[in-house]
Amino acid sequence: MTAINGQGPAGTYPPGGEDTAGQDLRALFGQSRAVFASLHGPTHVVESANPVFTAMVDEHRGLTGIALGELMPELAGPDGITGLDEVYRTGRTRTSRNVSIVVGSGAHAHPAYFDFTYEPHHNADGSVAGIRLIGVETTQLEQAQRLMAEQRALVEQIARQAPLGEVLDGMARSIEQLAPEQVLVSVLLADPDGLHLRHGAAPSLPEFYNTAIDGIATGEGVGSCGTAAHRREPVIVTDIGTDAFWDDFRDLAQQAELAACWSTPILARDGALLGTFAMYHRTPRAPQDSDLALARIFADTAALAIERHHTEEAKAAADARTEAAQQELAAALRAEHQLRAEAEQRAAAAAELAARMRSAAAAQAEAPHPDRCQLGGPTRCDEPAEIKVADSWGDAAWGCVNHVEEALLHVRSVFIASEDMGGLAAYRDR
């Protein structure tokens, strides 16, 4: 296990940052190679070649005396052997651009691209003796164009506010396609407290694996990603089978057929943890400079996407709070208006009732005071009329003490009045 130090916050570089960025690009794309070979006869037998051509085609044995088609069968076609045949036949120089050939062998074989120029060289009698092959590698340009296209697509997704999962999934697939050797990419997102990592994207990892590591803690020795998040620096585990960081996850990794994991923290501009970017491999493996450069470049892109997502989430939350506050204020205003309207209605009703009562009282005041109790019913009562009772409907009568008490017990909303003292005073002070 190796921890790689010195990376600044995502989106920034340490002193000399522009040089670091340039170094990443050079590490990612390498240096262009120029090749030369002198070919003889109609079968294009190799007479001589520069060391770059020799190492590129076959680094284990000599090339002279072997036909080019045998050395590089992928050159069959109009831009390769067929083109050479044409130059040999016509004596005219030909240029073939962006020709794909396979460099290396076995697990290290990978495509490379060249611009080839085929120039005839002649015998003394003017006939074509052979062809000089001159090539300039364009793999770097091809890879740079692919990287630029992938980066442009991701930035466009971020700009149009595509869902974060969609952006990260596309980024993971892009890296898996750009990497020269098989790699499985995973992006984990940090919780707001930075103490746990959640699944972000991992299109090529098994679902059971993604589910198992969803929510792992950040901390020293918690796999590659948990440790990288804790340290805020890349952590390279070249062999999961023997590394102590993977003691708690080794069986899970073996079940998923994972043998190496290189994890890079994704950091915000202020250094806050946003997540981790991991590259898994099926066999134990140490990273090349190009692998680390690719990780740094896409960690910056992931940081941009995640920060933009957090900004949009914060804005959406603020908008939701504002809308909720506005709705609450509107509801309070509606309630206030309703209460005010109800109060006005009650005040109007009370005023109307008071007016009716005053009118009824005035009418009753004009009525003559009877001598005898009016509350005796059909049998009448000959007791003096001493107390006046009335109700809220405007009816009133004079009665004796006994019959007024009965009225108060059996009739709702009855009150006592008198000409001299008014209201209940006449009954209270009798």
Automatic annotation (TrEMBL):
Supply the InterPro entries for this chain. Answer: GAF, GAF-like_dom_sf
- Keyword set for this entry? Coiled coil
Q: Which SUPFAM superfamilies match?
A: GAF domain-like
Extract the ranges annotated as region (Disordered). Answer: 1-22
SMART domains per UniProt: GAF (SM00065)
Q: Which residues fall in a coiled-coil region?
A: 322-360
Gene3D superfamilies per UniProt: 3.30.450.40, PAS domain (3.30.450.20)
Where do the GAF domain residues begin and end? Answer: 163-316
Could you confirm whether the keyword Repressor appears in this record? Answer: no
Name the source's superkingdom.
Bacteria
User: Does the keyword field hold Coiled coil?
Assistant: yes
Q: What is this protein called?
A: GAF domain-containing protein
Origin organism is Nocardia alba
